[in-house]
Specification:
alpha+beta; 46% helix; 2 helices
């Protein structure tokens, strides 16, 4: 159970395997933030809205898609 680099429609992103929620360093968070930026701009979100969402995601989950709320 570890972090792996995956490929999606909007580029690469980091995710955990299975049910792990390993922490990410800043470089991996930036990769995920770039992926989310591409997706959300494609969906019509404004830059301000995306920045607000990413700020919250960094505080809550380190922009890790497998971090589960407890």
């Amino acid at each position: 159970m570890a972090l792996i680099l995956r490929q999606g429609l909007f580029g690469n992103y980091w995710g955990n395997t299975f049910d792990s929620s390993n922490t990410m360093d800043l470089e991996k968070m930036q990769v995920n933030a770039t992926y989310l930026y591409g997706y959300l701009t494609h969906q019509g979100w404004t830059v301000n809205a995306i920045c607000g969402m990413l700020g919250n995601m960094q505080s809550e989950s380190a922009i890790n898609p497998r971090t589960l709320a407890k």
